[in-house]
UniProtKB/TrEMBL annotation:
Pfam families: Mur_ligase, Mur_ligase_C, Mur_ligase_M. InterPro entries: Mur-like_cat_sf, Mur_ligase_C, Mur_ligase_C_dom_sf, Mur_ligase_cen, Mur_ligase_N, MurE/MurF_N, UDP-N-AcMur-Glu-dNH2Pim_ligase. Its EC number is 6.3.2.13. A motif (Meso-diaminopimelate recognition motif) lies at residues 416-419. Belongs to the MurCDEF family. MurE subfamily. The gene is murE. Residues 112-318 form the Mur ligase central domain. It catalyses: UDP-N-acetyl-alpha-D-muramoyl-L-alanyl-D-glutamate + meso-2,6-diaminopimelate + ATP = UDP-N-acetyl-alpha-D-muramoyl-L-alanyl-gamma-D-glutamyl-meso-2,6-diaminopimelate + ADP + phosphate + H(+). This is UDP-N-acetylmuramoyl-L-alanyl-D-glutamate--2,6-diaminopimelate ligase. Its cofactor is Mg(2+). GO terms for cellular component: cytoplasm.
Amino acid sequence: MKATDLIEVLRLKAIYGEPLANKEISLLVNDTRKIIPNCCYMAIRGEHFDGHQAIEQAVEAGANVVVVEEYREAWQNLNATIILVDSTFRAQAILANQFYHRPSEKLAITAITGTNGKTTTSSMISDWLTRLGHKTGLLGTLHYKVNENYYPAVNTTPNALELQRLFNEMVVEGCQDAIIEASSHALQLGRLWYTEVDCAIFTNLTREHLDFHHTMEHYAYAKSLLFAQLGQKFANGRPKLAIVNLDDEYSQLMAQATAAEVATYSIGNADATVYATDIEVVDNQTEFKLWVNQRPHQVSLKMLGDYNVANYMAAFLCLKYYYGYSTEEIIRVSGEFEGVSGRMQLVDEGQTYKVVVDFAHTPDAIENVLKELAAKKQGRLITLIGHSGGNRDSGARPEIGDIVFKYSDYIVFTADNPRHEPVQKICQEIIGQHNEVDYTIIEKREEAIAFVLNHANEHDTVVFTGKGGELYQVIGDDYVPYNEVEVIKATLRKNI
């Protein structure tokens, strides 16, 4: 793209250095490691690094246009054009949208936000649409998917440059739809600016990320930005759609933030657009009645937990009222969905006890999982747990301790993304004054897994919380490759 065509969309700017005329822009980058000749480098002030410190390095590596929030005289002789703006965060969203020719306008985009349930709900929507003949893109915690191509996920929601690049790849690959998880960090930091969302879903809000948001009110406000971002434009001749969990105390805040039509779901509340009753577990499947237009429909879900029934209803509303599929079509294709890796995933290698892997790491999610498993246990409920908030929201640890001691018969505390914080310190802050249930601390997660599986008895239920389908552990600054399910399977095979 010509540099003049790229930069012309910025109204508020000052231009220094070389003229833009005749320059071509090959790529937009905000990481000096990704610079290629004739690219445009965005200087972003991050948590650990200020991109303005690398301007000379960026130009030397080949950047011919640089976008900054401050101008220094030392840059006046660089072989580049310097574009001064108030916010490079905002500018990168605008420029990415321009560079990739507004790709989100060419896709039907559904965005899911909430503390828990984003991955399951987004995976359901993508899977069901695929079974109905769509080509989809999916961006979230587990991975980034573009049709049949999969990439590792760096963040739940990529930064604006990567997001628009992925949208463009989806368009090129012939995708019709993009389903994305919208994290509160992404919403507050503007990663979804200039993404034309057509359907927004709110799952729930419980304590998480208060190291970043500080209060639940600020956390809720960040989530509500997704619904405000729907705007007041029609999509395909109709208002956009907001889908809200009526059972959550913040549901009205989300509904009030948008001019879109609002559909609601609930477990048991007949005032919702759809609601579920008569939930029971039969042969490791969840059976329930789904009420649509006051008519009951029997549904079988190959997942456990009332919260997964809630996730199901959120996905159902998206396909029915945004995409327009019939209730019968949705129930048919949803019955083939096998669940999500690391979300109440059963691991069976022929052992005589039940093994469950779940991503639960917030107090609410941990209680949902443990309460569900404790109610169905035959032997002991053995819980392996850590806290993924190393150097993060340590205030959640006492509540996690209260929950895990309430439901478990034996507990193994271990590492879960400790970052730079000592594992012993994290575990002791979870344990607090509790001693009513036997427990042990084993710092290395693989050793803790081996210990648990070696001490499980026939009919016990063993649950591994925190990692789920994540493919790494964060130890110090390093993202160490790790696969919880594969470690468990290998250990089980060794024991049998």
